[in-house]
Amino acid sequence: MNSPAPAAVYVEDDFMSILVDMLPFFLLVMFIPPVYNMVFLIVKEKESKTRESMRMMGLKDTPYWLSWFLFFTTINTVITTLAWIVLLFNVINYSQPFWWWFFFWLYGECVFGQIVFTQSLFTRSKFSGLFATLIFFGASLVNLTVQAESTGYYPKLAASLLPQVAMCQIATVIAEYESTGVGVRWQNLR
């Protein structure tokens, strides 16, 4: 009598199947307030010529941008840790939780680079935060064109230069690993 070959248990979680589509959206929404606030504050500082005043007193560009970077990194770490703690309850079941936190945190740091680029497009602070938020959210719509299976490797790679597209692609993969019961572990990343 023949018996079937032993295989790992197949797990499919319906909630996690929904999370595959919703996780990128939640990550996007999570960073909208910091994007709005940071762009508004940097452009307002540019508008009031505070940076030029500090430059006349001898401030170089490196400490100026390093202070903004540390300010955003602090905000990013708090937001990332809070979101990670929420996901620890009944969402992250199979993965090593550190990888989820690390992914969220790296995405937040990429958002800072986009903030610095976006603020350079504005000279008035009145609508800068609003338009920066629209640009931030609108860049995620590029992912809709990249998601098609007919899209080649190089267009996906080029579109992934936008942090939102890269985040959507990676969040989908992470959620799929979690929904099948495999999870993201160091062994999977090699």
Written description of the protein model:
The protein has 190 residues and is an all-alpha fold. The protein has one domain (14-48, 60-184). It is built from 10 helices and no strands. The protein has helices spanning 14-30, 32-47, 50-56, 61-88, 97-119, 128-139, 142-146, 153-159, 163-179, 186-189. The model has no long low-confidence stretch (mean pLDDT 87).
Entry summary:
By secondary structure, the protein is mostly helical. The protein has ten helices and no strands.
Number of strands: 0
Order of helices and strands: HHHHHHHHHH
Indicate how many domains the architecture comprises. Answer: 1
Strand content: under 5%
**What profile does the largest beta sheet have?**
none
Q: Provide the helix percentage.
A: over 70%
What's the mean pLDDT score?
87
Low-pLDDT stretches: none
Helix tally equals 10
Q: Helices and strands in order, then pairings?
A:
Blueprint: H1 14-30, H2 32-47, H3 50-56, H4 61-88, H5 97-119, H6 128-139, H7 142-146, H8 153-159, H9 163-179, H10 186-189
Characteristic key phrases:
single chain; 190 residues; mainly alpha; 0% strand; elongated
